[in-house]
Design a protein that fits this description.
single chain; alpha+beta; 3-stranded antiparallel sheet; about 15% helix; about 35% strand; binds zinc ion
């Protein structure tokens, strides 16, 4: 897996949380098959999602 620590402040790699609130994503990429994982590492952004998004029911 390869890791890109570059965070683009308002670029396409941001996840939209609300209309005006975005979280930067960090990506991990497997160069054998192209699989991509993305993570939010800022705990404040995760808290915002907890407040704003609907919880998935099991
Ligand atoms: Zn792979």
């Amino acid at each position: 897996m390869y890791y890109n620590e570059t965070i683009i402040p308002q670029g396409g790699s941001n996840l939209k949380i609300t209309a005006f609130y975005f979280a930067a994503l960090e990506y991990y990429v497997c160069i054998d098959c192209g699989y991509v994982e993305s993570y939010i590492t800022n705990p404040n952004k995760l808290q915002k999602i907890h407040e704003k998004w609907a919880k998935v029911k099991n």
